[in-house]
Amino acid sequence: MNVPLHKKIRQDILNKIQTNEYAENQLIPTELELADIYSVSRPTVRQAIQSLVNEGYLEKRKKRGTIVKRPKIQQEFTHVIESYDSEMSRKGLVPETSILKFGIVQANEEVSKNLEVPLDSKVYKLIRLRYAEKTPVVLVTSYIPYTLFPKLREIDFSQEKLYHVLEEMGHPIKTVSRKLEIIKADETTSDLLDIDAEEPVFYFHTQGFSESHVPIEYSISKYRGDRNSFIFELSQ
Question: Where is the HTH gntR-type domain (predicted)?
Answer without folding.
Answer: 3-71
